[in-house]
């Protein structure tokens, strides 16, 4: 997941699959290879990713 030139989130297959299966208002927590903890929360047709001040949103349909 790229948030312009600011940052990127690397998703391994197990996290990508879990996020793709999220139902509305469910969340998935994971740690990337840099050790940063992330929360992916589905809100309707969007998935919001957050880690501290780093936040971005992508369409849930892009996760399938």
Would you give an account of this structure?
By secondary structure, this protein is mostly beta strands. The protein is built from 1 helix and 6 strands, in the order E-E-H-E-E-E-E. The chain has one helix at residues 13-20; strands at 2-3, 7-8, 27-31, 37-43, 46-51, 54-59. The strands form 2 sheets. A 4-stranded antiparallel beta sheet has the order 3-4-5-6, with helices on one face. A hairpin with a 2-residue loop joins strand 4 and strand 5. The longest helix has 8 residues, at 13-20. The two termini are 13 Å apart. The mean pLDDT is 95.
Number of helices: 1
Average pLDDT over all residues: 95
- Shape label: globular
Biggest sheet, spatial arrangement of strands: 3-4-5-6
Set out the fold topology.
Layout: E1 2-3, E2 7-8, H1 13-20, E3 27-31, E4 37-43, E5 46-51, E6 54-59
Antiparallel strand pairs: 1-2, 3-4, 4-5, 5-6
Characterize this entry briefly.
With 64 residues, the protein is mostly beta strands. It has one helix at residues 13-20, and strands spanning 2-3, 7-8, 27-31, 37-43, 46-51, 54-59.
Write out key terms for the chains shown.
64 residues, mainly beta, four-stranded antiparallel sheet, two-stranded antiparallel ribbon, 6 strands, 12% helix, 44% strand
């Amino acid at each position: 997941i790229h948030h312009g030139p600011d940052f990127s989130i690397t998703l391994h297959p197990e996290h990508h699959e879990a996020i793709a299966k999220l139902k509305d208002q469910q969340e998935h927590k994971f740690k990337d290879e840099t050790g940063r903890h992330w929360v992916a929360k589905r809100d309707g047709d969007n998935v919001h990713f957050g880690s501290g001040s780093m936040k971005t949103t992508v369409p849930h349909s892009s996760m399938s």
